[in-house]
């Protein structure tokens, strides 16, 4: 058993790809979905990865951080958010984007234990969205004055911002700590 743990969850697969890349490069790290983690007592480094979903981490990641809140105060922590909006923006008076999502994770973790953080790109494929997410995207485009219908989603391009080189930079920093 290793003393490093990568905890993640994924909605459409981008965060899982990044978790695999980290696992392949780091080597000595256990990789588990948040719902699979029953204990973190034997780990000294916890890496937490979440997609930006509806401008916040996935519920399973928030639940993991709450469940292990006390134990996380005794661990080194690295965090990453997977988001196609790598910076930060404002929409309808609220902050959105990857850097904003890092801030959400920071608020739920012991800040003094965070040794590394980054925003990594993912894939947005409107052709595979579930019904709820299709409606959210249509609503968003209508709200910003670019009306579309649900059937138009099949014609939207796939946005692929997965970047193995950027992920490798995160991995190299992770290996150095």
TrEMBL record:
Protein name: Flavodoxin domain protein
InterPro entries assigned to the protein according to its UniProt record, in alphabetical order: Flavodoxin/NO_synth (IPR008254), Flavodoxin_CS (IPR001226), Flavodoxin_dom (IPR026816), Flavoprotein-like_sf (IPR029039)
Gene3D superfamilies given in the database record: 3.40.50.360
Taxonomic lineage from the root: Archaea, Methanobacteriati, Methanobacteriota, Stenosarchaea group, Candidatus Methanofastidiosia
Gene Ontology MF annotations: electron transfer activity; FMN binding
Domain Flavodoxin-like: start-end pairs: 4-145
Organism for this UniProt entry: Candidatus Methanofastidiosum methylothiophilum
A Pfam match: Flavodoxin_5
SUPFAM superfamilies noted in UniProt: Flavoproteins (SSF52218)
Coiled-coil region list: none
